[in-house]
Write a structure and sequence with these properties.
single chain; 597 residues; alpha/beta; 18 helices; 17 strands
Amino acid sequence: MVTSGHIGFEEHLSKVVPSDPKPSEKVSQQVLGAVLQELAIAAPDGCLRSDLLRRVGPGDGSTYSAATLSKALAALEKAHLISKRAVYTGPSSGGRPPERYMLGSHLWAMVGVHISISHNRLHTVTCTIRDLSARLIQSQSRTLAEDKDWAQIAEQVGDFAKQMTMQWQDGRSDARILGVGVEVPGHVHRGKVMEAPHSGWKQAAPLADDIRKALGGGLTVVLDNDVNLIALREMYRPDRRTRAEDGAVVAVFDEGVGAGLIVGGHVHRGHRGAAGEPGHNAVFVDAGIPRLPGEASDASRTTGTYPTFSDPCTCGRSHHIDCYAIPERIAGELGHPLTEFARLAGEPGYDGTKLTPAGKAFWTAGAALGHGIVSLLHAHNPGWLLLLLPPALAEVELGTTPLSRQTAAALYRQAIETAIDEHAFSSTGFDARRGNPHLEVRPTADDPAGGPEKAARNAAVRVLDDFIAHALKKDECVRESSVDAGPAAPVRLDERQLAKERQLALTKELREILKAYDPERLLRAESLADQYYTEEHGLLRLVMDKKLDSQSVRELWSSSFRPSKLLVDDNKLSAFTRELVTLQARWNSGRVAPVNR
């Protein structure tokens, strides 16, 4: 089964590998995906054929044969998904010169979209057209209408992307778009923007589906948040092979702190997409006195001097890292607007021997972020950690002068390092720094053009990553086998027990979906089992019997609830059904299993 969102990918792949190829051209989609993945890591430089023969394999440490690789390269080149050029290294010694294979061609492009959502600025959208190596072809930005309704935003974004793709394809009937990637800040999950659960679960906005509809259907649209996409971009760099498979990216923006987690070489998004949100961790920090690790700390604090740091987070709670560590709060703490942050960061941290207000504010903010990073190190133990900071904080040299002569920005950075040295358990701090004295720090782009364009580039890379995962059969889609299973073999008792445990795991996940959506709004003080007992068993049969669609859910629900709140809300019914279809795909692929298995 291919989910509706990935039908565009399946159509692309069907052009590369026809349903009835000649024996000499037959090649599996997994081989195509493995070749594309290797070329994506090496982009834009590409790989020699000899490099591909050494590196491309099924993922178990082996490599594909030369004949298999040749068929894959020929199929991808015929479909123009890759191209090649001869490499001339000197005077010819006879024979064919070596060839370098490159990702993409002039006939393929992908769309990367950055949506800027801010509580104190107008929403904007930046739409870019890029080749398959993520190099920029076209870029445009526009201001969105002042409307916080996600359906309205989706319509505007879809129309904008449609105009740009039509311009790029104008006059070229064979030009094709691989897909559309959309970057948006905050909590997203499987194409939906999730509402804050602390205020009571709300229906998620199906932003990816709505944008696909605005585009006219057909194209695959993928959605992810900003820091997950930065982490994904780190996994498509040539030095990926020299870094640990488990890593982390922590990014500090003007209005929040986010993180992207890499587990086993893939972005880890968590059960419902909320993994990597350190900005909402609670911290309780005192300004203290700036110090190097091991020096005495003064935890005294004057009450009433931190009105901005003590203001609630955007989610409504207090004492979150986002209340301290971000430029907006630091500037506000010092009584200045965000536009003056760079100047404040350059102020002295000390006035003689006395800590300045700027020094105190920046140290407090850095200490809060440092404690959050320590928590992440303990939970994840990454083999590397990249810290992205605004340029005013990133472009600082540590350890060159005494703390008493440092700028406020340097105190912010030292507070992070001191928190790690004082509180990180065992080797976690050493691992994250890769043996270096300090964390790896890079500046985030703060210019109005470069920042959004880089974010849109990362969204385009997510399209390529999803397409490769689809070809490798490592996404949510499961292809139904056309081979007859034959007579059933006797089932051993341990297999019966495993099947029973899998069904219990499926039931547990189904209950979580019912609890999250609460289709008839019945879950107040009553337990879940009392309210949806009959429907739970009916949905289990639909999931396990492969008869699940909107109509089957509608029929089940209409027999239980008259009138029904779910059936009068088409958007909620569609979202509920999509969640069930995704669960069914995971069940069919064997990814729903007992925890201890």
